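[Discussion] Sanity-checking designs against the backbone

I'm trying to build intuition for which residues belong where. Below is a structure token string of 302 positions. I'd appreciate it if someone posts a full sequence so I can compare it with mine line by line.
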């Protein structure tokens, strides 16, 4: 069986939920405390044994390319001032095989994945969405590593799911599981995009990590634009599921959605509470704030 060595990071979306911040800046460069979200993804890929990464980018994404490139002026400056720790942080970002492809028009996630076909070739690969972070404080397993381990056992395309509160199903793609073939691994009848809670076939929501066999490309070639007039990856997965087994792997670790304002703030707080330079001050601040907000709520109720 071929090993999973390559990853696609689709990053050509417009990031409209963060306007005006994303008017000129790539959404993937928004930091969590001091690290751009895309760097967390790249680190997860490396921890999972991925050797080559391709970022599918669009307009306003130059900052991503620059972030993973060397910056001799900055490096010389840090070196001359003996700022060794900072120099190490800067140099680490270039120690990686990363490539960039342009998606000429934002025609949807499925189209972004298809754009990377020539880079992937005839191999299994992973897709990692930049909004979705997991295991940011390193307490568990990177999700991508779990998916690759699962692929090594089944040889089948597998996507990551997570249990969400039933009332939240309308925010996600949700799986209709037919059987739990082993703990946390499901056979799937079909995938339903953002179902109303009363129609949701399960509480298992698709989160942004996938491992695919290369046959997904042929399916994507023939997938017509769907919801929002975009080529939907979920539509292609439903089609693939008719000719090949597609599994869902349940992730039980920490997961953060940084693609919306509240999720991004929450991730900053969780990461900040573990970051050596911010954790003590932030903890004290949150405690003080909690007391203040509780007093405000109490006063409102009177
Ligand atoms: P989103 O649905 O989160 O869209 O895309 P978005 O444009 O990034 O953000 P909002 O909703 O406008 O705020 C899911 C993933 O698919 C990528 C995005 O970059 C994101 O990682 N994507 C989406 C593409 O690469 N190309 C597309 O045409 C659409």
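Best answer:
Here's mine. Compare freely.
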């Amino acid at each position: 069986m071929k090993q999973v060595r390559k990853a696609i990071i689709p990053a050509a979306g417009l990031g409209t939920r963060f306007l005006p911040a994303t008017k000129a800046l790539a959404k993937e460069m928004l930091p969590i405390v001091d690290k751009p979200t895309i760097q967390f993804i790249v680190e997860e890929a490396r921890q999972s044994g991925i050797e080559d990464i391709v970022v599918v980018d669009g307009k306003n994404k130059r900052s991503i390319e620059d972030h993973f490139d060397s910056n001799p002026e900055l490096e010389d400056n840090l070196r001359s001032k003996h700022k060794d720790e900072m120099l190490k942080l800067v140099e680490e970002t270039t120690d990686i095989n990363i490539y960039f492809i342009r998606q000429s028009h934002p025609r949807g996630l499925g189209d972004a994945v298809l754009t990377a076909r020539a880079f992937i070739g005839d191999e299994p690969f992973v897709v990692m969405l930049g909004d979705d972070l997991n295991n940011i404080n390193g307490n568990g397993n990177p999700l991508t590593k779990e998916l690759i381990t699962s692929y090594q056992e089944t040889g089948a395309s597998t996507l990551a799911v997570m249990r969400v509160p039933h009332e939240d199903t309308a925010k996600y793609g949700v799986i209709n599981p037919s059987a739990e073939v082993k703990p946390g691994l499901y056979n799937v009848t079909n995938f339903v995009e953002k179902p109303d809670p009363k129609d949701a076939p399960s509480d298992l929501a698709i989160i942004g990590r996938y491992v695919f066999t290369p046959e997904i490309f042929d399916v994507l070639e023939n997938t017509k634009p769907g919801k929002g007039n975009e080529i939907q990856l979920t539509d292609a997965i439903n089609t693939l599921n008719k000719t090949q087994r597609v599994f869902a792997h349940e992730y039980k670790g920490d997961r953060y959605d940084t693609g919306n304002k509240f999720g991004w703030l929450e991730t900053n707080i969780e990461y900040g509470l573990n970051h050596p330079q911010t954790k003590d001050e932030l903890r004290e601040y949150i405690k003080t704030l909690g007391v203040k907000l509780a007093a405000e709520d109490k006063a409102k109720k009177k």
